[in-house]
Amino acid sequence: MALFGCLFLLAVLLPHHNAAAIPHHGPATHDYRDALTKSILFFEGQRSGKLPPSQRVSWRRDSGLSDGSSMRARETLLLCFTPISSAALCYLVDLVGGYYDAGDNMKFGFPLAFSMTMLAWSVVEFGGLMKGELQHARDAVRWGSDYLLKATAHPDTIYVQVGDANKDHACWERPEDMDTPRTVYKIDASTPGTDVAAETAAALAAASLVFRKSDPAYASRLVARAKRVFEFADKHRGTYSTRLAPYVCPYYCSYSGYQDELLWGAAWLHRATKNPTYLSYIQMNGQVLGADEQDNTFGWDNKHAGARILIAKAFLVQKVASLHEYKSHADSFICSMVPGTPTDQTQYTRGGLLFKLSDSNMQYVTSSSFLLLTYAKYLAFSKQTVSCGGGAAVTPQRLRAIARRQVDYLLGSNPMGMSYMVGYGAKYPRRIHHRASSLPSVAAHPGKIGCSQGFTALYSGVPNPNVHVGAVVGGPNLQDQFPDERNDHEHSEPATYINAPLVGALAYLAHSYGQL
């Protein structure tokens, strides 16, 4: 512990004037620009569908080209051959595209939508600092938002999953070879899913801001769809995993309910449209939707903390006085992560890593770091600090120092000297829990690799043949240890929702050190 523990304590407990110097003076600890480039490249390795000529991850090929066809057949029978229907009522379900959210071949709509919300937020807040990487980041957002437009193409229906998770997980095969059922699951008025619907609305609204200047027509289409989807989410209330539990659980059950997503979705629509209707919605429903709840874990399931930070911007930056209480709500969340404050509730490893849960803990590290940097930006603009009680004010500089320490740990400044981003640094995970990365590419092995054949690779100790550059894995355990075993999905599996907020954090750090 000695060295790394002491460095962490210095970073967060030094007097504020010293802490302010940490992110801005002295040599950069890491090449944040290189890490930014790689964190965005990762998304190309997760693509599903027909890959474009600009595809840079060459060990991937087209996959999932018939996604949606199973639902198309069912819907055609339902809508085109009933006595009262006509050909005009027939429609196609095209779900080709999008992302595999993690190391399997599933397209789970709930975490996919959250990943796109956070990737878009990264671009909205810090895209101006990305320079040559901005177009790649926009491309990554568009690949996801194009898919979400397809998934919401039909009114009062959202296609929220492609693939049978149990059957998919019974195989270890490349997405290019997959022959497991590509079953489509949906929500509608009779099978509501407010949580996934409101998250999808948030993603579409956030993406519209990314393209507002570069492609206004596309941005208008995104925000119009976001409005319609949010209206559906709010009108037909229910948790999506209530009716779809056999298919979405235990993988992505909605444990926190749907109140957080309604607040989050309304916050994004307010930011994207400036329509007073959404401001009124927040004012009238905020408390009922949990604005002041003390749930301080921000991730694909619970969005309360992110909503508080986002709404607090309207008060701090846009001077919307009626939202003043969200400054206190946001402060409460931030204070829970600042060591030494009266309301500090966050556990850190001895090496200094924020530790929430053993399963894919790095997602909370990246999402929390992003919120720290984003809130610091809002506070600096408004010349305010965080009030954590006890008379001490926490400055934006201190929040940046804490966030930077987390990113540095992720990139290799930790007891193991291990970068948890694949392809960054000299020592990084070589056996990640990822089907496409762990099996020979189609170029190297043109023949089909069957469902059960791939398990030889799963249990092998040989490094993955395809280096999935930019993939950030779940990370070490509470003791700062990482075994680098492919079958250890809790620690070795990458995910889009780990990388998405990291993109923004790396852009800020690269810029602050003059690397961009």
From TrEMBL:
It holds the Pfam family Glyco_hydro_9. GO terms for molecular function: cellulase activity. Its EC number is 3.2.1.4. Transmembrane segments: none annotated. It catalyses: Endohydrolysis of (1->4)-beta-D-glucosidic linkages in cellulose, lichenin and cereal beta-D-glucans. InterPro entries: 6-hairpin_glycosidase_sf (IPR008928), 6hp_glycosidase-like_sf (IPR012341), Glyco_hydro_9 (IPR001701), Glyco_hydro_9_His_AS (IPR018221). Keywords: Carbohydrate metabolism, Cellulose degradation, Glycosidase, Hydrolase, Polysaccharide degradation, Signal. The active site is at 433. GO terms for biological process: cellulose catabolic process. Residues 48-67 are annotated as: Disordered. Residues 1-21 form the signal peptide. Residues 32-506 form the Glycoside hydrolase family domain. Belongs to the glycosyl hydrolase 9 (cellulase E) family. This is Endoglucanase.
